[in-house]
Amino acid sequence: MSATTVWITPENKSRLEGLKRHPKESYNDVIGHLIDMAVDDEPLSEEAIRGIEEAMEDIRSGRLYSEDEIRKEFGVEE
Predict the structure, then answer these.
(1) What sign does the CA torsion over 7, 9, 10, 12 have?
(2) Tens-of-pLDDT digits for all 78 residues of the chain?
(3) DSSP annotation string for the chain
(4) Is 33 exposed, middle or buried (0-12, 13-18, 19+ CB in 10 A)?
(5) Is-contact 18 30, C-beta < 8 A?
(6) Out of 18, 28, 48, 55, which could bridge 44 as a Cys pair, Cβ 3.0 to 4.6 Å?
(7) Any long-range contacts for 24-28 (C-beta under 8 Å, 24+ apart)?
(8) Distance (Å, rounded) from C-alpha 19 to C-alpha 15?
C-alpha cells in the first residue's frame, strides 16, 4: 500500500478529529467513512425519477406553496 501526503487546514484536521469513532481511528478511516456516505452506488429507481420529474414540472408551472401558506393550512404557529 502506498501513502500520499495531503495538506489540510488546521480547522479541517480538527473537524476530522471530531468525526473519529474512537480516538485511535486513522484519518484514512474517517475519510473512507465520509466517502461512503457521499457516494451512492445505487441508481435512482424509476419511481424516484418520475417523482423528481413531477416535482420539477410543478416548480416550472408555479404550483408551489410558501412556508407561510403551509403553516396557515396546517395551523402551525412560529
Answers:
(1) negative
(2) 788 999 999 999 999 999 999 999 999 999 999 999 999 888 899 999 999 999 999 999 999 999 999 999 999 987
(3) ---------HHHHHHHHHT-SSTT--HHHHHHHHHHHH---SPPPHHHHHHHHHHHHHHHTT----HHHHHHHHT---
(4) middle
(5) no
(6) 48
(7) none
(8) 7
Site of grid cell 457516494: 39
The x, y and z cell numbers of residue 77, run together, are: 404557529
Which residue, chain included where needed, has cell 501526503? 5
Residue of 31, 29, 47, 28 whose CA lies nearest to 39: 31
| CA-derived radius of gyration, the chain | 22
In this prediction the pTM is 0.53
